[in-house]
Amino acid sequence: MMKDVYNHIVETIGNTPLVRLNKITKDFPCEVYAKVEYFNPGNSIKDRIALQLIEDAEKSGRLKPGDTIVECTSGNTGMGLALVAIAKGYKCVFTLADKMSREKVDILRAMGAEVHVCPTDVEPDDPRSYYSVAARIAKERNGWNPDQYNNLSNRQAHYLSTGPEIWRQTEGRITHYIASTGTGGTLVGTGMYLKEQNPEVQIIGIDPAGSILKHWFDTHEVKPELARVYAVEGMGEDFIPDNYDRNFIDHMETIDDKESLLMCRRLAKEEGLFCGSSAGAAVQGLVQLKNRFKPTDVVVVILHDHGSRYIGKIYNDDWMKEKGFL
Ligand code: PMP
User: Fold this and answer.
1) How confident is residue 124, by pLDDT bands cut at 50, 70 and 90?
2) Which of 31, 172, 181, 295 fits a 20 to 30 Å CA distance from 87?
3) What is the Å distance from ligand 1's center to 75 Cα?
4) Closest ligand 1 atom to Cα of 180
């Protein structure tokens, strides 16, 4: 028998490494580990949910061979869906907001998907928004819209994979779990599993200034009018997706664009971890929370995706200067 051999690339989803942070956390009292999700075959954590969304839809009979999958995505879910679609023979149509990096659009097209780029600065219910365009195309083509925001298969993927992996890798020693949050799947699904093992584990979401998630968590109010555009990608929302459940969240921390993007550069130079903006945001949030930790704590922070998708932005001095981040 050959060992460590797979029948298809989708079989390599999950089981990502947990890697200790050394330099950025050198004056922390405790151990801090990064769950490096760019080791997934689509280079992001969202491969996990793509597989769960599709397999749950197949089981329920909603998705049948030859069907078209239509989704609004910041790119990573699209990449995951495209990979799983190739394995299982589905067509993919994706809608993206125009603030997303050019690389993400090109990558999805390379994976055989049809991509529609939509304006960022319109309300979610505007017919031009990437939510509305995806809904319209799904209707026109009798396609299946996985709706990663409100489909609970999203958080279930993390309940079934990300959570158990972290629990096993830390041998149950984890005390704090930190993740940038958008749909809420990564934060809440993993949080549900970890709190089931040990209710004391602190579940901490990282939210960009300009998102309404922290305000909702702190006040119970949903205020879309507080939303404004920010630079970090794939995180923050201007509504509250169904994947959220405040019972599994202990704290939400706000981060700013500039500190987060500069933290991405530090992660690359100081730790050798070449990541996307939400990873810089998560580690910036971690640093802001340093005083909460004690010597026996074991902190795990999620690094959602790889830096290759942001070369023209975070890792480009001209773009960083033009935006006032350098
Ligand atoms: N970071 C990146 C790069 C992402 O693509 C996403 C997914 N939108 C997130 C963070 C947030 O994860 P979640 O949607 O599970 O909350």
Assistant:
1) confident
2) 181
3) 10
4) 10
CATH topology of domain 46-140: Rossmann fold (3.40.50)
User: pTM here?
Assistant: 0.95
Atom of ligand 1 nearest to the CA of 181: 16
Return the closest-CA partner of residue 35 out of 148, 169, 155, 175.
169
Q: What pLDDT does 72 receive? A: 85
**Active-site hit among 35, 46, 195, 214:** 46
Pick from 40, 46, 147, 263 the residue to mutate for probing ligand 1's pocket: most ligand atoms within 8 Å of its CB.
Answer: 46
Domains 9-39+160-320 and 46-140 are alike in CATH topology: yes
Q: Tens of pLDDT along 156-190? A: 999 999 999 999 999 999 999 999 999 999 999 99
The whole-angstrom separation of Cα 308 and Cα 20 is 22
Average pLDDT over residues 136-153: 93
pLDDT tens-digit profile of 270-287?
A: 999 999 999 999 999 999
Architecture in CATH for domain 9-39+160-320: 3-Layer(aba) Sandwich (3.40)
**Ligand 1-lining residues (CB < 6 angstroms):** 44, 46, 74, 76, 180-187, 233-235, 276, 278, 304-305
Give the chain's count of helices (H) and strands (E): 11, 9
Pairing of strands 31-36, 18-20: antiparallel
Q: Which tokens go with 202?
A: 């602190």
Residue 99 has pLDDT above 90, yes or no: no
Say whether 46 is catalytic.
yes
